[in-house]
Amino acid sequence: MSLHLIRQIDHWQAATQRLSDFQGLASASTWEQLERYTDTFLRARLGASVRRLQQEADHLMQLARQEGAREEDILRDLQQLRRRYLATEVTLDYFGDAINTRTNPSLGRHLAALDKLAGAAIERALRPLGHLVPPVMTYIDKGLGASILKAGLRLWDQRGVNPVAVIKVVRHNIYRPTALIHEAGHQIAYALNWNAELAEVLRRELSSESPVIGNLWAGWSSEIAADAFAFAYTGYGAVATLHDVLSGGPNLVFQYRPGAVHPMPYLRTLLGIEMCRLAFGSGPWDDLERNWIASNPLHQLEGEIIPWLKLNRLMVPKVAAIVLQRPMRAFGGSSLQQYLPIQEVHPRNLLQWGSRLGPPNAWPVSDLRNNSLRLLALSVYKQVTESYQSPAFRREMDHWFSRLTDWPSLHHSQPQTAPALLGEY
């Protein structure tokens, strides 16, 4: 066997051995900031991937040292090993980079609280229907919008499924983290197969107006579903926060790309406002709508997009009714409005509840955990409607977020989740 091949195999064999040192990804103290079950599931998933890669490298070296080994076969397997090593490295680095955003203790506690909130949203939607609840890990990054790497999907190394829902939150919205619940909504809709069902209903119901319109809104179903979950859990705060993110001038507001999964921001904001109106009646969203339409007049546009937009604006109330009020298989035959406690985040109910509860810092931790999503909705609602007091609301959030991290993970009582989420390697 060529010494050149043996040298290369030795190089990649040694490289695979070094991948098993997870302290090279993040320090022990940073790993410890993860939920215990998140840490367990993640180490199991990454460890299995690395061990499989090491076995392949060791086996290749054994083959290369055998008498009669064909160099062309060894070279082919070496190229495959290189590709798999690089894919595994991408997987490890992704999680390492995410975990390392917790290096700062204060930010680490904030992210740990966001883990709890997203986990509570997923648990509330999935557990009653018998679905397994994945652990959640959040991390912070730049940009305008959040994102999720869903549990249950295959990672870059193709060794098995991702056991942890990994949610990116962005710095500018860390105190109004309703996008966190939007991303948790993607995990929920994926688990319940609501995306496909909602697309089917939208296509059927709106095609009476135009098959093109039906297909258009059906193609937006996954983002509409996630927005609906953010609204169901955090109410008007989610709609106002989304409005503020999308208020980036006409190039963003009227941005439309055929085949894109996100609705045009102009229509997406109007849909959120319509959900408020349908669920809660009149309120501050009416003024938000007037301001949105006045700030983004259609007459500044040119060509066929104007009648296209006017037609789609007419679809918004119908879409909102389908999303909130239509019974769905995903929710066991209930509508979203029946399945999740949307009336709890009605501004009137939120404010009445908030006036009775007293300072969250005085609550028992168990009560804090059980009401964390509603407390988030109240905090964000106050921030978007009483902005002159926002600094005080943010300080209050810091206090109860810190206490929320004292509550043990729901997965301490759910160890059987691991095999189903880790999948086969």
What's the layout of helices and strands?
Blueprint: H1 3-18, H2 28-31, H3 36-65, H4 71-99, H5 105-126, E1 136-141, E2 147-149, E3 165-170, H6 178-192, H7 194-206, H8 211-219, H9 221-234, H10 236-246, H11 250-253, H12 265-280, H13 284-295, H14 305-325, H15 336-339, H16 347-357, H17 365-370, H18 372-385, H19 390-404, H20 417-422
Parallel strand pairs: 1-3
Antiparallel strand pairs: 2-3
Helix pairs in contact: 1-3, 1-4, 3-4, 5-6, 5-19, 6-9, 7-8, 7-14, 9-10, 9-12, 10-12, 10-13, 10-18, 12-13, 12-14, 16-18, 18-19
Describe it for me?
This protein is mainly α and 425 residues long. It has a domain at 3-101. Helix content is 64%, strand content 4%. The protein has 20 helices and three strands. The chain has helices at residues 3-18, 28-31, 36-65, 71-99, 105-126, 178-192, 194-206, 211-219, 221-234, 236-246, 250-253, 265-280, 284-295, 305-325, 336-339, 347-357, 365-370, 372-385, 390-404, 417-422; strands at residues 136-141, 147-149, 165-170. A three-stranded mixed beta sheet has the order 1-3-2. The chain starts with a helix and ends with a helix. Mean pLDDT is 91; it is low at 410-425.
